[in-house]
């Protein structure tokens, strides 16, 4: 299946030269303080606290608590607290986090890991707030209802509603689902119930077995028969074509298997992460500044959209991968991405962009949504990457297990 590329491009080719910075982390934090304070003020104006997700046509776009991106803004504010030590950010992070209390009982989609671990998980790590562990464990219980034992995977989407119901799928699993496994490992740690971790391992193993092509690019969607465990087909939902390499999917892939190694110390996961990294950086369609086009196989390259969100995710993953492998090349690549994203080509001028940090991300071109706009998860992973970079340069682990 292929999709038509929209003809109007807000951004064509970006070529940036990364200039040396005295302290690129400090520079980005100072910039983020200005941007994000304005976004906090907007989101908390009036009687109702809202969750900002994007900025389009001069307006901030807000999402409900059950949207898959609802936890990223809270997580962004927690990272600002970690980067600055300023209690302002912790105060507002907590407000945004606790908006999501009911998500712990949500069972109709898989993205609760994003929603709860990026918010409650970071809050717990940084402030050890009473009750946050319970929310994480309850969320893991809800996510575990989506485990299909005959196939050995967590079902990503239901197929009885929305556009998913139109695809003829039975039990779709998307590569993005790897990002929800961290929550399961932490729930096992907090509760003592190893069931959650076992589900995470099963899902990761089946994904490693069934999602990858010989070159270690990943399909976006694998549709399973949840009764027999067989594969019904391999597809895309947000990429250019079923056989193309959707950029953010490759980023989730790299990040997910790096994270799996952190929790299991199983070398097969580290090897898969390194194979994915090799695919990314040997790809002739990876731009010089290492900010990918939205799909590595889009026929309109170079005259198509970049995706800063994919770049930020890749950078964050590479910092962790460099630590696990002691391979400086991964950190060098991550540093180059951060340098690129810190230039005016991708980082918005203060007072613009609705208060978001990064410009030029892509949500879903096939669905006509969030194209060449700021996205809250781009900012989240950008700040996460800065935290990890800073930790490594202090000689400590980039991420706490």
> How far apart are the first and last residues' alpha carbons, in Å?
39 Å
Could you give a short account of the major beta sheet? 3 strands, antiparallel
Share of residues in strands: 5-15%
Mean pLDDT value: 94
Query: DSSP helix count?
Result: 12
**Structural class, judged by helices and strands?**
mainly alpha
Q: Residue ranges: pLDDT <50 for 5 or more in a row?
A: 1-15
Order of helices and strands: HEEHHHHEEEHHEEHHHHEEH
**Sheet with the most strands: spatial strand order:** 5-6-7
Shape: globular
* Radius of gyration over all CA atoms, rounded: 20 Å
The helix content is 40-55%
- Give me the count of strands: 9
Features:
46% helix, 401 residues, single chain
Task: Give a topology summary.
Layout: H1 24-43, E1 51-56, E2 59-63, H2 72-84, H3 87-98, H4 112-127, H5 132-144, E3 147-148, E4 153-154, E5 171-174, H6 181-191, H7 195-210, E6 221-224, E7 231-235, H8 247-264, H9 267-282, H10 308-325, H11 328-341, E8 361-364, E9 369-373, H12 376-393
Antiparallel strand pairs: 1-2, 3-4, 5-6, 6-7, 8-9
């Amino acid at each position: 299946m292929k999709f038509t590329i929209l003809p109007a491009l807000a951004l064509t080719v970006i070529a940036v030269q990364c200039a040396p910075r005295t302290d690129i982390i400090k520079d980005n934090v100072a910039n983020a303080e200005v941007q994000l304070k304005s976004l906090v003020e907007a989101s908390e104006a009036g009687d109702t606290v809202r969750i900002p997700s994007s900025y389009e046509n001069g307006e901030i776009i807000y999402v409900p608590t059950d949207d898959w991106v609802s936890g990223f803004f809270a997580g962004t504010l927690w990272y600002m607290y970690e980067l600055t030590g300023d209690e302002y950010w912790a105060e507002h992070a907590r407000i945004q986090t606790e908006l999501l209390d009911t998500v712990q009982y949500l069972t109709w989609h898989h993205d609760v890991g994003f929603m709860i671990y990026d918010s409650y998980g970071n809050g717990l790590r940084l402030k050890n707030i009473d009750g946050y562990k319970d929310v994480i464990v309850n969320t893991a219980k809800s996510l575990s209802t989506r485990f299909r034992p005959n196939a050995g995977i967590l079902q990503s989407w239901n197929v009885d509603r929305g556009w998913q119901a139109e695809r003829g799928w039975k039990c779709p699993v998307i590569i993005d689902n790897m990002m929800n496994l961290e929550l399961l490992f932490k729930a096992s740690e907090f509760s003592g119930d190893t069931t959650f971790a076992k589900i995470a391992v099963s899902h990761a193993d089946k994904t490693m077995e069934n999602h990858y092509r010989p070159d270690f690019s990943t399909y976006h969607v694998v549709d399973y028969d949840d009764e027999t465990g067989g594969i019904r087909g391999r597809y895309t939902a947000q990429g250019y074509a079923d056989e193309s390499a959707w950029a953010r999917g490759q980023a989730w892939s790299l990040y997910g298997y790096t994270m799996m190694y952190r929790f299991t110390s199983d070398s097969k996961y580290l090897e898969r992460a390194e194979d994915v990294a090799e695919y990314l950086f040997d790809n002739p369609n990876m731009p010089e500044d290492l900010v990918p086009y939205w799909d590595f196989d889009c026929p309109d390259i170079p005259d198509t959209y970049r995706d800063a969100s994919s770049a930020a995710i890749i950078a964050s993953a590479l910092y962790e991968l460099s630590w696990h492998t002691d391979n400086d090349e991964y950190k060098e690549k991550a540093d180059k991405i951060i340098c690129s994203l810190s230039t005016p080509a991708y980082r918005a001028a203060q007072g613009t962009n609705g208060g978001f940090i990064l410009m030029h991300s892509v949500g879903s071109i096939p669905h006509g949504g969030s194209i060449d706009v700021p996205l809250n998860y781009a900012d989240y992973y950008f700040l996460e990457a800065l935290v990890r970079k800073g930790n490594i340069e202090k000689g400590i682990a980039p991420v706490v297990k």
